[in-house]
Design goal:
single chain; 31% helix; three-stranded parallel sheet; alpha/beta
Length: 226
């Protein structure tokens, strides 16, 4: 892939083969920023997962960097007010099922009560393609609407490994203080370590890198190798 002059100038500023500490890497990403908009800082962690292993969970970062999420709650009519009082942007059943089926996506995350999943499941092809399908593993299928919505409002973020075993997750913005971005990275890596399978290989984390949306990647030291 051919890169532009600004990108080439960026990679000339550091050792692309070296592995840096989390703090050093996050400062480098900020220093290497060359575009005019406020880029997202992205973390990429390659995992050693066996065929029967998966990695999917959620966490709340210590330092928030995204705008407030628009939350859609699928629930029976008698729980609509409860969901709205908890902070949901939209709540209901048939009306919103029909709107989503018709192509409406003016929301960022979906929560559903268990008794609605039979109907919500019919939207699997629509919601699944956008990664919006409620799932008990991520706390988005629940009867505790107050707690679920509160966590999402605080910035609870879902992460999952793709088919190649790599987790891609946004951890900050270039405009953020690099130390705050580093705190988010460390929080995520600690959560990943807590959630790794009991029978995980010694080299569970194969590699870690961080970059801005348009910038070059910076390798991060893997503490498991230390």
């Amino acid at each position: 892939m051919k890169h532009g002059k600004n990108y080439r100038n960026s990679i000339a500023k550091y050792d692309v083969a070296k592995k840096y500490s989390v703090s050093e890497a996050c400062k480098l990403v900020k220093d290497l920023h060359y575009v005019k908009f406020d880029e997202t800082v992205e973390l990429h962690v390659a995992l050693h997962l066996e065929k029967n292993q998966t990695m999917r969970d959620t966490l709340v970062f210590p330092n928030q960097f995204k705008g407030e999420k628009r939350i859609l709650v699928f629930c029976k009519d008698d729980r609509v007010q409860e969901a709205l009082d908890a902070g949901a942007t939209y709540a209901g059943s048939t009306e919103y099922l029909d709107k989503v089926k018709g192509g409406w996506f003016d929301f960022d995350v979906v929560v559903a009560t268990p008794d609605m999943m039979k109907d919500v499941g019919r939207l699997g092809m629509v919601l699944g393609r956008k990664g919006l399908m409620p799932n008990p593993k991520t706390g988005t299928v629940t009867n505790d609407l107050k707690a679920a919505v509160a966590e999402l409002k605080k910035g609870r973020t879902e992460f999952r490994a793709d088919k190649t075993g790599v987790v891609h997750i946004a951890v900050g913005k270039v405009s953020m203080d690099a130390d705050k971005t580093a705190e988010n990275v460390n929080a995520f890596l600690a959560e990943l370590n807590r959630k790794k399978p009991a029978d995980a290989k010694a080299d569970f984390v194969r590699s870690i890198s961080v970059s801005s949306s348009m910038g070059p990647g910076v390798w991060i030291e893997n503490q498991e190798e230390a």
